[in-house]
Design brief:
Elements: H1 11-23, H2 26-33, H3 37-51, E1 56-58, E2 63-65, H4 67-91, E3 97-102, H5 104-111, H6 115-121, E4 125-130, E5 144-149, E6 157-160, E7 165-170, H7 172-175, E8 186-189, H8 196-203, E9 213-215, H9 218-226, E10 231-235, H10 240-245, E11 249-250, E12 256-257, E13 261-266, H11 273-283
Parallel strand pairs: 3-4, 3-5, 8-9, 8-10
Antiparallel strand pairs: 1-2, 5-13, 6-13, 7-10, 7-11, 7-12
């Protein structure tokens, strides 16, 4: 058999390449692979010399894949996925317990209504952990996380739960008032979503009256809106049950789109590919 120089490439060289490509950083790749940044750099140098081509462009404070690196990366990832899937299938690599870390709002509004599907579809014990303060991502590698943002996380698995759309909602009782909704009391919500100032700037609605109530969770703010205490600028996907039942009504057809939303995130150490596929199938939005 004719042997090729490609037959015996050390796996740790290829793993260093894949991690550095995924994170866009030798330092982050070193943290994931448990070696020093210098070791990652040396492994990639050796890999490039072995392959006879440059895989990364080194700049002062960043790295970027070359055309050759970009072309090879999908094949490397496919090979790692195949190895992982065969290992899971043959040696039972599935985790018996999954911990989902999310805000109380997401647990209450998104996960709990889907628990029957979640627990019946996955032979795993679930633990739901309320996220109070964001922690370092490296400390959460064993968690399945749900976080709000634009999706620029380095996790191997990530999925947007839904497309964020924001609009004012209020109780039917409050809307019986003869006053225009723009003059009714308002409820404010702390957090990353756009607020009343953003709504006013987009649609030319007066910024007054100022909100008379402010909450730090959507669950509490929705309870106040249902009780008729004011108009709330809410995430429509997260108050779909109230809109469907009629306990809250959208007061205008205008909506404020937002580029950020909730993302489901997990490392390859946290879930198997099969578990991730099942999580995706249950937690991804399927609007009617």
């Amino acid at each position: 058999m004719v042997r090729s120089r490609f037959d015996n490439i050390p796996l740790e060289w290829i793993r260093a390449f894949e991690a550095a490509a995924r994170f866009g950083s030798f330092t982050a790749a070193a943290d994931e692979t448990g070696v020093t940044q210098s070791a990652v750099s040396q492994r990639i140098d050796k890999l490039e010399k072995h392959l006879g081509t440059q895989l990364f462009l080194r700049q002062a404070r960043s790295i970027a894949l070359t055309v050759e690196g970009e072309a090879w990366l999908p094949h490397v990832r496919s090979a790692f996925d195949s190895l992982r899937e065969s290992s899971e299938g043959l040696f039972g690599g599935a985790r018996k317990r999954l911990t989902i870390s999310a805000s109380s709002t997401v647990i209450d509004r998104w996960i709990v209504p889907r628990l029957v599907q979640l627990t019946s579809g996955i032979e795993t014990q679930f633990s739901l952990q309320t996220m109070v303060l964001a922690t370092d991502a490296a400390q959460e590698d064993d968690l399945v996380r749900i976080r709000y943002g634009a999706g620029n996380w380095p996790q191997a698995y990530k999925m947007a739960l839904f497309e964020e759309r924001i609009a004012p909602v209020a109780s039917p009782a409050l809307l019986k008032s003869t006053m225009p909704w723009t003059e009714l009391p308002r409820i404010a919500l702390s957090g990353p979503r756009p607020g009343w100032t953003d709504w006013s700037a987009r649609f030319g609605v007066p910024t007054t009256p100022l909100p008379s109530l402010r909450f730090d969770t959507l669950v509490s703010a929705l309870a106040a809106a249902r009780a008729g205490h004011g108009v709330l600028l809410a995430s429509l996907p997260l108050c779909r049950d109230e809109l469907t039942s009629g306990t809250l009504k959208q007061v205008t057809t205008e909506t404020l789109p937002h580029h950020e939303t909730y993302w489901l995130l997990a490392s390859r150490d946290a879930v198997t590919r099969r578990q991730w596929s099942q999580l995706e199938a249950v937690l991804r939005d399927r609007p009617a």
